[in-house]
Amino acid sequence: MKRRSFVNWGTAGLVALWSAVGVSLAAVVRFLTPSVFYEPPQDFKIGSPADFSYGPPTFLAEEKIYVFRDREKGFAVASAVCTHLGCTVGYFQSDERFHCPCHGSVFDADGTVQHGPAPRPLEWFEVTLARDGQLRVDKDRTVPANYRLMV
Ligand code: FES
């Protein structure tokens, strides 16, 4: 074997070796990177109290919550996630109840189950007033259905 040919084979071997190392490292990085994204923040601001009207609750689709505002009672925030399989419930002013479109669960205005298959009432989340005057909701902190924030 000529010396020049040996050098070319050696170079090709090194290239192949480093390629294999690169592919292996890429596989390790891919393995350590989660395939799903983490949940959005559970603690967020929803605007100033003046942004919400009295009467029927305001539905915030992105946050999947209903914001209730009552002159005497104040603010309350209910989850729009059905406790059966997680569909988004709708609030109907006509009967003042939440209805789940997926399997027909019905919840009272305070979130209690009127009829299933939902196994539990809707959750209520803590709402507070942030220093900048905006309403802040913390979905990690559930509160009783009669919890209200007076502003
Ligand atoms: S997801 Fe609401 S009743 Fe099934």
Account of the protein in words:
The chain contains 1 helix and 10 strands, in the order αββββββββββ. By secondary structure, the chain is an alpha+beta fold. It has 2 domains: 38 residues; 101 residues, Rieske Iron-sulfur Protein (3-layer Sandwich). Strand 3 and strand 4 form a beta hairpin. The chain is elongated. FE2/S2 (inorganic) cluster binds next to loops.
CATH architecture of the largest domain: 3-layer Sandwich
Order of helices and strands: HEEEEEEEEEE
Number of helices: 1
Low-confidence spans = none
CATH topology term of the largest domain: Rieske Iron-sulfur Protein
Spatial order of the strands forming the largest sheet: 1-10-9-4-3-2
The global form is elongated
- Arithmetic mean pLDDT: 88
State the CATH class of the largest domain: Mainly Beta
Strand content: 25-35%
Number of strands: 10
The radius of gyration over CA amounts to 27 Å
Under CATH, the homologous superfamily of the largest domain reads Rieske [2Fe-2S] iron-sulphur domain
List ligands, each type once: FE2/S2 (inorganic) cluster
Core attributes:
single chain; 151 residues; alpha+beta; Rieske Iron-sulfur Protein; 2 domains; six-stranded antiparallel sheet; four-stranded antiparallel sheet; 20% helix; binds FE2/S2 (inorganic) cluster
